[in-house]
């Protein structure tokens, strides 16, 4: 599990989790060292798998030992490493992303509850605001994000970073951490590998100059895959496959970014 995937997995838990579930990955120690995740005491509860009926049990400290009570087995002792808690440090995370993108209007504390405003970047069509919300999977996630926006300055474009889920609130676009970030273990920092403006849907500035080097090969490749029955369901999956095939067919040409390929997939498959 790489650092981005591991951070997203912990973020998706929306709280403190047992570090032992993740500490076997080398990326865990990279994230701890970078301050992007932090160990914070012990978890409040854990799953009892010792009896015939697994159940959630409150963690207690008794007789110089951590453990929990099971209705069938009584007190079940656990070594401290088994109950140590870890959680993301979202203040450090949002600050890193804001610095990477040279954001303005930064905020290193939540806008409201679990919603964070990372900051805004300029574009040719107005500000693009970047937010973080742990998951966007259900009605509660959606309501919480909408409530947080009530006190925010309105912007024409925005991207919501999340670990899981695809719900969004117009005019914003939802993007998964795995799709836009990479981690540099030497620097101990996340870096943005995607074009945030393209993801947000900012229109390309037409200057009347030379057309994109990507338009012709992608306009040939995307319909060809569809005609051969090789097109995948879902824009994200198809864009990744198209990009991989582009690199194979054009090894000496600079490869377009994933957001650029996604845009062409949408344009071409919709007939625009």
Which structural class best describes the helix and strand composition?
alpha+beta
Q: What's the assembly state of these chains? A: single chain
Helix content: 25-40%
Number of helices: 9
What Rg is obtained from the alpha carbons, in whole angstroms? 22 Å
**What are the secondary-structure elements, in order, as H or E?**
HEHEEEEEEHEEHEEHEEHHHH
Q: How many strand segments?
A: 13
Overall pLDDT, averaged? 88
CA(first)-CA(last) distance: 39 Å
Model regions low in confidence, pLDDT < 50 over at least 5 residues? none
Shape: globular
The major beta sheet can be summarized as:
4 strands, antiparallel
Strand order of the largest sheet: 3-4-5-6
* Count of spatially separate domains: 3
Strand content: 15-25%
Provide structural commentary.
With 272 residues, the chain is of the alpha+beta class. It folds into 3 domains: 3-88, no CATH class; 90-200, no CATH class; 215-269, no CATH class. Helix content is 33%, strand content 24%. The protein is built from 9 helices and 13 strands. The protein has a 4-stranded antiparallel sheet with strand order 3-4-5-6, with no helix packed on it. The chain has a 4-stranded mixed sheet with strand order 8-9-10-11. Helix 7 (215-227) packs across helix 9 (258-269). The longest helix has 15 residues, at 235-249. The protein is globular and about 70 Å long. The model has no long low-confidence stretch (mean pLDDT 88).
Structural key phrases:
272 residues; 3 domains; 4-stranded antiparallel beta sheet; 4-stranded mixed beta sheet; globular
Write the layout of secondary structure elements.
Blueprint: H1 3-11, E1 17-18, H2 26-34, E2 37-42, E3 45-48, E4 55-62, E5 65-70, E6 74-78, E7 84-88, H3 90-100, E8 116-121, E9 128-132, H4 139-149, E10 157-162, E11 172-176, H5 177-180, E12 181-184, E13 189-192, H6 196-200, H7 215-227, H8 235-249, H9 258-269
Parallel strand pairs: 9-10, 10-11
Antiparallel strand pairs: 1-7, 2-7, 3-4, 4-5, 5-6, 8-9, 12-13
Helix pairs in contact: 7-9, 8-9
């Amino acid at each position: 599990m790489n650092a981005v995937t591991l951070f997203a997995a912990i973020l998706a838990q929306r709280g403190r989790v047992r570090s032992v579930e993740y500490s076997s990955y080398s990326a865990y120690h990279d994230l701890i060292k970078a301050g992007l995740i932090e160990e914070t005491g012990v978890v409040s509860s854990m799953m009892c798998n010792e009896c015939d009926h697994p159940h959630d049990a409150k963690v207690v400290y008794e007789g110089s030992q951590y453990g929990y009570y099971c209705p069938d087995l009584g007190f079940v002792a656990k070594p401290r490493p088994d109950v140590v808690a870890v959680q993301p440090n979202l203040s450090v995370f949002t600050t890193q992303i804001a610095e990477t993108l040279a954001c303005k209007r930064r905020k290193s504390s939540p806008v409201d509850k679990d919603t964070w405003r990372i900051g805004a970047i300029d574009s040719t069509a107005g500000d693009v605001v970047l937010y973080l919300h742990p998951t966007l999977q259900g009605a509660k996630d959606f309501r919480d994000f909408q409530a947080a926006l009530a006190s925010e300055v309105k912007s024409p474009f925005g991207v919501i970073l999340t670990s899981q889920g695809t719900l969004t609130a117009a005019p914003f676009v939802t993007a998964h951490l795995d799709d836009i970030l990479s981690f540099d273990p030497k620097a101990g920092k996340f870096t943005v590998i995607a074009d945030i403006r393209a993801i947000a849907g900012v229109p390309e500035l037409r200057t009347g100059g030379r057309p994109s080097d990507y338009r012709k090969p992608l306009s040939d490749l995307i319909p060809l895959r569809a005609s051969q029955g090789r097109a995948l369901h879902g824009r994200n999956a198809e864009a990744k496959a198209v990009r991989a095939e582009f690199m194979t067919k054009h090894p000496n040409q600079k490869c377009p970014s994933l957001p650029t390929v996604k845009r062409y997939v949408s344009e071409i498959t919709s007939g625009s």
